[in-house]
Specification:
The protein contains 14 helices and no strands. It is mainly alpha-helical and 337 residues long.
Length: 337
């Protein structure tokens, strides 16, 4: 709502205009994103020429992301029985094609560096690409990621009160998904794709820091501090509140430490599971089935429960658990080769 000065009642004061903080923050993010895309193109070209690129995994991941984005676009479009639907469908292919090409390029650029610096982080991820969804290593890493989400989300009441955060679910997309099944499914698909990108970015930057400092404990400390400052201090930087900044950085350091622990001990799949389940639980606004907006909340909560049940059942049902260490060691040797 726009409030003009002449519409104010006596004694009322108009809200101050937003400062330069949000604009500078957005500009910095866009510049970094553009630089990362340009660097990824050159890195992908160099990896392909050198024969280090995992083209098979890149094609599988790009196909998966492209198909998901195509389904999401078709779900949110309005469809009618008319020939004019054909050009609309053609235009709808542009965004999924762009996402598939971007993921293909980024994977060719990042995966060789991660594999060379830290092959153990990709063991369970490569098994997922091979279709081994019943693998005990994959299920274990997913279960650990979900447990980390539960640990961090249990602190939500404390962190929200300390940082004076608004209630969950104030994003417009949550409310659109609450009363529209197509919007809800499209939002879930977009969440999966976004969390894949976030997890890969985290692993890549951690490997980059490891290659620069050449000490694991230094890399772990530096990455945890940087991640905590970015995640916890971003909103505080935008607001310009010093007290909020200190609390935000402290909370961010805690979350950064948990994320780094997942990265170092369990690898990429644990981080993917943690970021995905945390994003799904972020859309849980209510647990009351009688609320008209409960559909998306119950759907997201049910998705997290299904992921947890699958991972737990797989860990309990597989009998080859003692051979896990031997299989992991051989996988690392193959990946290094």
């Amino acid at each position: 709502m726009i409030v003009a000065p002449w519409t104010l009642k006596p004694g009322e004061i108009a809200a101050p205009a937003p400062g330069a903080g949000p604009r500078n923050f957005a500009i910095a993010v866009l510049v970094l994103l553009g630089a990362a895309i340009v660097a990824a193109v050159f890195m992908a070209r160099a990896s392909t020429k050198a024969g280090r690129a995992d083209r098979r995994g890149a094609w599988r991941l790009a196909t998966f992301v492209g198909l998901l984005q195509l389904i999401a676009v078709l779900l949110v479009m309005g469809h009618v029985a008319d020939l004019r639907e054909i050009p609309l469908l053609g235009a709808a292919l542009a965004w999924p094609a762009f996402c598939a090409v971007a993921v293909w390029t980024l994977y060719l650029a990042l995966e060789p560096s991660i594999r060379r610096a830290w092959p153990s982080a990709l063991i369970s991820w490569n098994r997922v690409l091979e279709g081994r969804f019943r693998d005990v290593r994959v299920a274990r890493d997913v279960l650990v990621g979900v447990a980390a989400t539960g640990l961090m989300d249990a602190l939500d009441p404390l962190t929200a009160g300390a940082m004076k955060s608004p209630p969950r679910g104030l994003v417009a997309g949550y409310w659109r998904a609450a009363f529209n099944l197509r919007e809800m499914l499209a939002a879930t698909i977009n969440t999966v794709d976004q969390m894949l990108f976030v997890a890969f970015a985290l692993v890549f930057f951690f490997c980059l820091i490891r290659m620069i400092v050449r000490r694991d404990w230094i890399a772990t400390t530096v990455f945890a501090v940087l991640l905590g400052a970015i995640t916890g201090g971003g909103s505080a930087f935008v607001s310009g509140n010093t007290a909020l900044a200190s609390v935000g950085v402290a909370v961010g350091l805690l979350f950064g430490g948990v994320t780094v622990g997942l990265l170092v001990r369990f690898g990429l799949m644990a981080v993917i599971a943690q970021t995905l389940t945390d994003a799904l639980l972020g859309g849980v606004v209510t647990l009351s089935p009688s609320a008209w907006y409960s559909a998306s909340s119950l759907f997201n909560l049910g998705a997290v429960m299904l992921i947890t049940l699958w991972a737990g059942w797989t860990c309990l049902s597989v009998k080859a658990v003692p051979a896990l260490a031997t299989a992991d060691a051989s996988s690392v040797q193959v990946m290094r080769a």
